[in-house]
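Quick one: structure tokens for this chain, please?
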Amino acid sequence: MYKRVIFEELKQHLAKPQITVITGLRRVGKSTALKYLLKEIDHENKTYIDLEKIENRILFSENSYTIIEAGLKSLGLTLNQNCVIAIDEIQLVPISVSVVKYLYDTYGIKFLLSGSSSYYLKNHFSESLAGRKRIFEMYPLSFQEFLLFKRLPEAETSALTEISYNAFIYLKYKPLYEEFIQFGGFPEVVLAETKEDKIAYLKDVINAYIELDIKLLSDFKMSNELYKLIQLLASRVGGRLDVSKLSSVSGINRNKITDYLELLEYTYFIHRIPTFTKNKDKEISGQTKLYFADTGILQILAQVSSGQVFENMIALQLKAKGNLAYYQRKTGQEIDFILNEKVGIEVKETPSDRDLKVLIHRSTELSLESTMLIARHAANSDFKDWFWGGNIV
């Protein structure tokens, strides 16, 4: 089993009486996380229940707690002793949340739950399991995790710290980083051996997301309409969202597009980056920039430029480090990202000294504490004052 960085935090929560809830996009590894946690339990009064299996859905859909208790006991569980139950795909049986609440309150059972969307989990769980749970969010692999999945030793991957350009590290890891950018970080995609298999997995993730998660979690029936909008969004990745233009191009009502965007973001499919609002009178307000949760998915959905894909990847890497915003004046002058309101960041495919000077000037005007020029390819010059994307960890 390949370990994820989040596993250590999840393992620490095993000792807490609170319900452990793992959510995120479909196929990011939530089921694997549940099975890992169960193996860490040092007794046998535990079980794994997959709600994709019809017999389990039937059990958790019963309107009698006595029948449900009997079913769990038939699995060999002793409910009134130290007991751990892992339930996968909890969103498939909405009433199961009430079952979990009853068993938790009655027997003090330690529950480990997974679900493929925050749209259902966050909203419904907040009402039903208030004070009883902690939600952990899982995302596609980081680059360091990607390298571990490629069987590189952990001690070796630790060399990828946030340092300025290092030619040796750049040349050693660049081919792997390029593969990471091209196909993204879904575990099954990373482990697939051929390009054809990787593409097939990515298409399956997209289809499952729209046909299963979206239809289950919302009242949207027009999956073709939503797919058309998603493709339009992909072609505009890294740009400011203009709902009116999207409505005009797609023929979809503005209010419905707004609802779609909210749903896509709540279910982890997209990320929206707000404007940096320190000097509101000089900024374009109200428009967010959009990025996709995985660069592999992005490139399946639309033909986008190399620069757009790289910027999307850096957005994902930076988002894991804190709060992200962007800055743009009405004149068009911009800073690609501002991290934690302190660091001005510019993203270029190939860096130059001039890029850094412009970034420093604009960041100084905003009183930012520091700057980072992040690039994908080494420049054909002696300029070294920049950060390679693979080192943003």
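The CA atoms of residues 318 and 354 lie 23 Å apart.
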